[in-house]
Task: structure prediction
Amino acid sequence: MSASARQVIVIGGGLGGLWATLALAEAGHRVMLFSLFEVMRSHSACAQGGINAVLDMKGQHDSVQQHIVDTIKGGSYLANQPPIQSMCEDAPGLIRTFERMGVTFSRTPEGLLDQRLFGGVKHKRTCFAGASTGQQLLYGVDQQVRRLETEGKVEKQEWWEFLSIVKDVDGVCRGIVAMDLRSLEVRAFRADAVVLASGGLGQIYAPKTTCSTNSTGAAASRVYQQGARFANAEFFQFHPTAMLGEDKTRLMTEAARGEGGRVWVPKDPGDRREPLRIPESERFYFLEDWYPSYGNTVPRDIAARAIWKVTRELGLGVGGADAGESRDRVYLDLTHLDRNFVSTRLGAILSIYRKFAGQDPLETPMEIFPAAHYAMGGLWVDYEKDPTRGGMKAGSPRNHATNIPGLYACGECDYAYHGANRLGANSLLSASYSGRVAGEAVASYLSGLEQGAEAAPAALFETESRRQADLNQQFSRPRGDQNPFRLHRELGALMTTQVGVVRDNAELDAALSSLRELEQRFERLDLSESSRWANQSLAHARQVFDMVKLAQVMAASARARDECRGAHFKPAFDLAIPQGKFPGDPEFEAYRERWKANNADWLKTTVAEYHPDGPRIAFEPVDLGLLAPEQPRDYR
Amino acid sequence: MHAEANRQTVELRIRRQDRPNAAPYWQSFVLEARAGANVVSLLMDLREHCVTKDGERVDPVAFEHNCMEEVCGACAMLINGLPRPACSALIAELEAPIRLEPLPKFPVVRDLMVDRARMFEHLKQVKAWVRIDGAWDNHERAPRISPQDWAANYLYSRCMSCGCCMAACPQVGSDQAFVGPAPLAQVRLMNAHPTGRYDKTERLHAIMAEGGLSDCGNAQNCVRVCPKAIPLTTAIGELGRQTTLQALKDLFGND
Ligand SMILES: Cc1cc2nc3c(=O)[nH]c(=O)nc-3n(C[C@H](O)[C@H](O)[C@H](O)COP(=O)(O)OP(=O)(O)OC[C@H]3O[C@@H](n4cnc5c(N)ncnc54)[C@H](O)[C@@H]3O)c2cc1C
Ligand code: SF4
Ligand code: SF4
Ligand code: FES
Result:
């Protein structure tokens, strides 16, 4: 290792963290990699669908430019355009690198990479590996990191939970404090730079989420509470069709609707008959009714809102009023389709549903509901624009830097690429790409660093680890009747209802006060567990507390944004397209002007900063250098 | 089917252990299981309210899980005596009372949590990776792979290191050196890759050494329990042929 080799800490071993680790180790630095468990178990393994890159393998004249435009428009122009440009340009090279690692991408008859169509775009641009793309990509980088481990370049700290960063007097990040999830030892680690790659935050909506348990957002919340800015927190993607479950809701891909699946509820919500005994005339096919030209294939967000309306506003969920919580259900029906066709086209869904519901979608309609899926928002990160090429400047130390010097963020925990909504198969790309960019940026940062963490006084580290140990003590002392797992459930229910698919300012105000009350209830916490070894209740309670803090940012950001954009839907501020009018019609052009005026007001990044009384919300401009917003989205 | 229609109560008998070297003991819990409940969802319920069948309030049962979709491999345990992922073990399909024990062959951390670090050490030992020059774009594609080869390789690439096969294998043990079926299958996978093949000799030597392929007694237990239906014994058979050839090459030196 060269004399200039420095110590870096990467937190998280999903696609983002492992790519950052590879880039840093290959630049000659020592990496210590922290994860809640063996890194190959990270949430990235759950992604089934695929990863986008323009390879134009299907004779469709696909272009990088088109990928950029689709990503910008998919995000309703809210994302800064230079990072999107660079990501789309570098995507093919990233896929080639994954392929060299041995990732088992699906093949064409000629043995080349196969590509398929994915939601929201017109070109076959998505590479995939059977029905387990995320798993295969994750294992590809996991294997490379394991190789670097044997070469002494990477040291894994699995089963350690990140608790906080350590800042010096100048506010520069000089290391972290973490807890051994087995011995519960709390310890400080010095580092010349820290990369946070802790993933998404769908668990804030548990159990109505498709995310794994590692997606709590707690780590991002912790650095936010230490001064890192958090951007676009109100933008959260809900997937319309997730199968129900007590532990989590599992994703049923869009293909189910694309291949002819029909969504319906009984007209009489109290109808107790088995669904197939309900005659056609007594079923309400609400998507077909409300969106005659698209029917069941309306985009994700439209479908989610319609299901929300049917169940929560019209009270037409399956089972009706006396079903209580479980009326959050509608049918996704494949039983009218040809069995062989469904088995070949939707085999993966059939097997998941059979495995986890114990029922066969060929025999009975599936029961589904929208679920929290992907956080577009995340830690605010910087970039340096390349003045000649227009994208991000390669190797700039500003890329993926948070506002805390020495602290970087990548993967789903940053906010950079998806604006107000994410296109399918674009986030395995952004997680991987941002990891590599963050790694390269940290390497540049380190080469300009005059003094490393070794010079920081020991007292800094001692103080912070004592503070964290004290917090553990405080959480462990029984002080009342509040169970951390129950608090988590309440948080999920509250967020699902009040900061979910459909938003309303009065509801958001109520949510903010409920969240403050939820936070106060931690003063009466009782872990119901006294073990000093592998105490999961302690770790969970601390996570839930930080999730509540982050939920406040989400609710406050949603409250602040009085418009509809992408996944953020506030009907009171909806600018509806005049019915039956098209570009050129005066009514449509008047609408276009209203749409532009709204952009002038609201096309800006939401930035939250921590304050003990609650988040402070501000806005900053978006770089629209490549494509100015002229075209409102029109899905008629 | 309506969720309320088939609620049922179910008894869990759980083998607990407070610490790595503490003595194990059994406790029983009676819980309500809703339609679609699985072993992980019941263990989650238990965290909130952990009272034994006899009414004694006890510490929650420690267990591992992450994806709840049978893809991360975290939640493997012995369920009614069989090693399998807990998240895909539906209560309605299990005989009650349901016995839960930590995955054997691995040291217990606490309750149903085990330490599978050994399995990852074995992956290092057999060099289960494709050696690349670096994780940058070198503007070269990897070589082509026929759809037939892809289909065969893909089966092995789905191994989620859950450890079920290791738990079932009579030759794997904490005091034995045998690397076990999952890492062997990864050797099969890497040796089949067009550039992974460049390090085939080294991998074969690794499994021809002590604790390697010859320790496999061909009992076939592994392949029966793998939740991902990975053809482990097929891999072991293929590796048998590869190592035989390698031994000849080593002898006559014509590599
Ligand atoms: C069901 C599902 C399907 C999806 N399918 C697709 C798809 O087909 N295509 C697509 O592009 N995207 C898809 N996505 C999105 C995509 O999977 C994720 O955005 C992406 O994998 C996130 O990667 P990551 O590296 O940021 O985080 P993760 O993979 O979640 O990794 C987070 C890491 O951080 C660690 N960590 C977290 N907190 C701490 C802490 N406090 N201390 C230490 N370590 C910590 C964890 O241990 C873990 O290693 C899907 C998402 C879901 C929910
Ligand atoms: S076939 Fe070999 S590896 Fe599989 S269980 Fe038997 S002895 Fe173990
Ligand atoms: S081979 Fe199968 S049983 Fe063994 S670790 Fe892999 S997935 Fe688990
Ligand atoms: S929780 Fe991931 S395999 Fe069961």
Notes: Chain B touches chain A through 76 residues (CB under 8 Å). Residues 39 and 168 of chain B are 20 Å apart (CA to CA). Chain B is about 30% helix and 15% strand. The two ends of chain B are 63 Å apart (CA to CA).
